[in-house]
Amino acid sequence: MPLYCEVALPVPLDRTFTYAAPDGQYPQRGSRVIAPLRNEKLIGVVMSVSNTAPADFEARYLEAVLDQTADQSLESSAEAEPLLSEALLSLAEWIAQYYLAPIGEVLRGMLPLMAEVSRTVYYRITDLGRDILANSLENQSGIPFANKTANPRKPAKNDNTGEEQNTPRRILERLASGDPVKVSTLRTASGASLSDLAALVRKKWIARETAAAERDARRTERFAVLIPEARLPALSTNQQAILAELAACGGEIPILELRKRGLSNATLQTLVRRGLVRIDERAAAFRLGGIERSSPPIRLNESQTEALASIASALGAFHPFLLHGVTGSGKTAVYLAAMQRALDRNLASILLVPEIGLTPQTAGLLDAAFGSKVALLHSALTPEERSEQWRRIRNGDAPIVVGTRSAIFAPVPHLGLILVDEEHDQSYKQEETPRYNARDVAVMRAKFANAVVVLGSATPSLETWHNSEQSKYKRIEMRERVNQRPLPEVELVDMRGEFQQTGQENLFSRSLIQQTQAALERGEQAIILLNRRGYSFAVMCRACGAKLECQNCAIALTHHKPPAEGELAREGQRLECHYCGYRRTVPARCPQCDSEHLYYLGAGSQQGEERLTEIFPTARIGRMDRDTVRGRHDLERLLSRLHSGEINLLVGTQMIAKGHDIHGVTLVGVVGCDHALSMPDFRAAERVFQLMTQVSGRAGRGELPGRVVVQTYHPDHYAILAAAKHDYAAFIEKELKYRRWMHYPPFGVLANVLIQSPKLEEAANWSAILGKWFQQTAPQGVRVLGPCTAPVARIKGIYRFHLILKSVSRQTLNGVLRSMLAHADTANIPRRNITVDVDAQRLM
Ligand SMILES: Nc1ncnc2c1ncn2[C@@H]1O[C@H](COP(=O)(O)OP(=O)(O)OP(=O)(O)O)[C@@H](O)[C@H]1O
Ligand SMILES: [Zn+2]
Fold first, then answer.
1. What is the pTM of this model?
2. Which of 200, 367, 441, 672 is 20 to 30 Å from 13 at the Cα level?
3. What is the dotted CATH code of the domain comprising 749-838?
4. Across residues 347-351, what is the average pLDDT?
5. In ligand 1, which atom is closest to the CA atom of 332?
């Protein structure tokens, strides 16, 4: 009798699908399966299993069960564990429910291995294929496709070395290392057609694997390991050399590394036969590439010790903490010590860091403290690397997991501690389905795992602060910087006054220029925040007032200068949309009115850099923004040039504010970060306060005290004033009052409902249908704003309308949202055109 299972598939539908398991296969809750859906094959996750078919079941069979018990009697053994633990499945169900996200899409976000099957095919060489290749290399002969009669170990002689015969050889050569190779890569490398590959598969020289099967096969690395207790017999010098090398490296070394050092494999094999060395095969370790080892461990100061004591004594049960420590108070050292305490009790930890928060410095500290026990998960990993990390974690080989947002789903056994660094950071919110906030998921995960969770920040979000006020989270305070270093003094420059006094609109104030000059002359470093990338924000027509907009989005195009081009070559320069990436050159005339009087508005980081180069011609200037930092390596390189002092003046966007600990920086300039205060966003003040505090916090972290110059047009705004005094309490008091008064989070909950369509009429129509439904049903306890066009009315050619829902009760809000989705379904509004963003961070 087959088993019936409910399978969550990665499609935007709030439901699971029923399938029967193939004969003799025993999927369990949490197993991955391949399921046919329409014309596709998808990887799904089994949510439940039953012996009886549902009433309306039409026979549909699973294609395969990827993680299963070989037979039912094995169910209890460790081998038979499904891929997703019960804790993670419960977490997924919680996310689906809390964020109104389709369960299949939630699971897809959790599982790195859940790609669509049809998309990735890999090939791998077989043993027979190796023989064929070896033979052909020996005989310098080609390998024909058609040698059915010939003995594969004796390929025909040189009479068939034509191009066609070499294709099989090129295929085999490309696969020779033994690693599976993607079909696309293989075809490019060998020039093979799909039918060529099929022919070799039929001959069993190569094997074809689907993505799922391939990713099950983890990459391994072979190590030579010294057997310590062996008494040493007489040895040849070559043998002694290998043993010496092994001893020098702490008793083990990857075999590849031995070869690189010119030590012979044959000698190694002799040592193995003599019982002096053994070969271990292990999952290839992930290397913390290119990092400097850090200095000896830090002695915790009094407040760090207290913080650690609170955290450590709570291990073993669910305890949420807010670690509120000013910038430079040494939170990182507390995290590391807490992870060590967890490890001492055989408990694993997850440390979450913001998108670019994982600096080489932090990686170095982790490596020094925990070495190969660390697994790193970040967005720059390839799917293979990610799944390798995943398996190391799941096997218990890496009880220290560090990563960005989705690392919160790492399948860590015996999880004891979760740390969320810079918990206020916006990058924890995923801005696509499922729209979860990893910080909040962290708290739930800790709850399911009976673990401690620590949310750390110098500028906690209002939500987290409120939870600590309500005693939901226990608050730990670290009020001072390490070694009694002072927080930097902040000077506010009123840019309105600056304009009146100088009669000019300058990007940099006189005070900022003077103080930068002075810092550079003293041999210190300065960083300047200019929180927009590009050269100018916008290009505007003086005649008709139109801004040049993106053709796909209702957004002004940002002007970028091509690097290293002549100063005034304005025409032909690049305009770029920061939403969709659309690019065009700057036109000679306004496309609306044909006037030639186009002018450039507002300065971005690129222009900032240019101005600074003019003002400080001898400064060693660097720029840090999304244009100069494309990948991790760019960031590493820039930071290491800063640490070494090679750069003494850095300009950049908010990236420069994130947790960097550069001791030479004594001056921080803040330029135009307060324009955000006029955005239609109730979190604007919070964002400005956080950014100002964080960037100010980069100054004076070394021996010398720091100074901050903030240029502002709102010198009386409470967020600016509080940030200037490092007064979180003053800010929070004002801000909480305003939020309570306006019924905004943390007083009550909020959801943004986006209705989108490539057809304006359709989007308008659908949002009207939903608006009308809200009017008619008038749900109790929910305030509805809208529908109206979203502040950004069109993105990537998709028209956007939205409704904002507020309620004091999450349950009420989610109930109403669910009824709304049901109504949308009956009104034939496709689910994929409605985005529900619970606890929305951006209302744009
Ligand atoms: N007990 C200590 N004694 C001396 N120096 C310390 C101590 N603890 C930490 N430090 C040093 O203080 C500096 C700041 O620490 P860290 O980067 O952890 O601060 P933080 O609290 O995370 O600040 P931010 O919120 O700004 O990121 C680092 O250079 C660190 O090496
Ligand atoms: Zn665009």
1. 0.78
2. 441
3. 3.30.70.600
4. 97
5. 18
Handedness of CA 362, 363, 368, 372 (dihedral sign): positive
The helices-and-strands tally (H runs, E runs) of the chain is 25, 33
Closest CA to 129 of 188, 207, 211: 207
Q: What is the pLDDT of residues 744-766, one digit of tens each?
A: 999 999 999 999 999 999 999 99
Question: Which ligand approaches the C-alpha of residue 798 most closely?
Answer: 2
Nearest CA to ligand 1 atom 27: 659
Does residue 785 or residue 191 have the better pLDDT? 785
Whether pLDDT at 489 is above 50:
yes
Write down the ipTM of this complex.
0.98
Looking at every residue in the chain, the average pLDDT score rounds to: 86
541 contact partners, CB below 8 Å, separation of at least 6 = 547, 548, 590, 592, 593, 595, 597, 598
> Cα dihedral sign for 768, 769, 775, 780?
negative
The bound ligand whose nearest atom lies closest to the alpha carbon of 459 is 1
Report which ligand 1 atom has the smallest distance to the Cα of 697: 26
Strands 374-377 and 277-283 come out as unpaired
Residue 659 CA, closest ligand 1 atom number = 27
Residue 5 assigned ligand-binding role: no
Span of 180-194, 273-287, 417-431, 744-758 with lowest mean pLDDT: 273-287
Query: Is residue 577 marked as binding?
Result: yes
788 annotated as ligand-binding: no
Residues 746 and 708 sit within 8 Å (Cβ to Cβ)? no
**How much is the average pLDDT of 290-306?**
71
What residue spans in the chain does CATH classification 3.40.50.300 cover?
302-484, 485-533+604-747
- Centre of ligand 2 from the C-alpha of residue 605, in Å: 20
Statement: residue 286 has pLDDT above 80: no
In the block, tokens 């050159």 appear at: 585
Residue 473 neighbours by CB under 8 Å, 6+ apart: 320, 321, 322, 455, 464, 467
CATH for the 4-118 domain, from 1.10.260.40, 3.30.1050.10, 3.40.1440.60, 3.40.462.20: 3.40.1440.60
Could you tell me the distance, in angstroms and rounded to a whole number, from the CA of residue 578 to the centre of ligand 2?
7
